[in-house]
Input
Amino acid sequence: MSREEWESLCDGCGRCCLRKLEDTDTGRIHFTAVACRLLDLHSCRCVDYTHRSRRVPECLPLSPAESASRRWLPSTCAYRLLAEGGELPPWHPLITGDPESIHDAGISVRDRAISERYVKVADLEAYMIAEGL
Output
């Protein structure tokens, strides 16, 4: 798979850019409604994708070899689905041909998250949500 093909798998939901909390006892990952400061909350795209790892050190680049082991990826993520042997969901933009289909299906964080710029780290627990928002 070429780099361009790999990148096209991203559906633009923005869920991977939500801050997560890990339960140290169980290892369970909990999503919050708090998004990375680089996420445009309407387009659900990174405003500085090329330099994101330098600007946000905890932003982890994803490769095909790593996607199966990244349990913090949302269950709807194409990278995770394909790594686990699944298929793209019917609302995925590569299936519909429409980049808005992810938002129309209610899968994205569009206008439903808050930037980390406005939330203290100590308050993240108050923003815990079900994975699907």
Observations:
- The longest strand covers residues 29-35.
- Residues 10 and 78 are 7 Å apart (CA to CA).
- Residues 3-129 form one domain.
